[in-house]
Amino acid sequence: MVRAFLILTDWTARISQFVAMLLLYGFCAMMLAEVFSRSFLSRSLAFSWEYSAFAMGGVFLLGLGPALQHGTQVRVTLLLSRGPHFRWAVDIAATLVGLVLACLLLRAFWNIFHTSFAGGLRQSSYVNTPLAIPQAVAVVGAGEFVLAMAARLLRLVLNMAPEIGREHADG
Which of 25, 61, 145, 162 could anchor a disulfide with 155, C-beta 3.0 to 4.6 Å? Predict the structure, then answer.
């Protein structure tokens, strides 16, 4: 059961990472199209700024879980250099706090999404995008982050490598 959960979280992190990469390329393409349109056609693309902002938010949120899995998040190593047992305890405590905060983040994004979806709210712009669409991406990204934090905590408790590329938990 534990192994299946860890395999699932690794799989969802890869999907999240892939979608974040697609959104990043889409964001870049929209900005390049905007620059081209303004420079050569003397007009702005109505959707580019709005959808680029949505895409960038998606990149940030969908990238949280994979960043945690790969150990690329910002961390303070001063406490982690005090020995393997202290490091393990601090890592577990920090991961627990992170898991609680990730759950709060998921709940907040879910509440915003649910309100927008139930009320049929739309972006007040020329494009008039239903807000539930980009907010659903935020919910998925926050959910992936919760899964990644839970998997990290489980790996730490079982003395497994919490991140890709680390050989053991106290390394």
Answer: 162
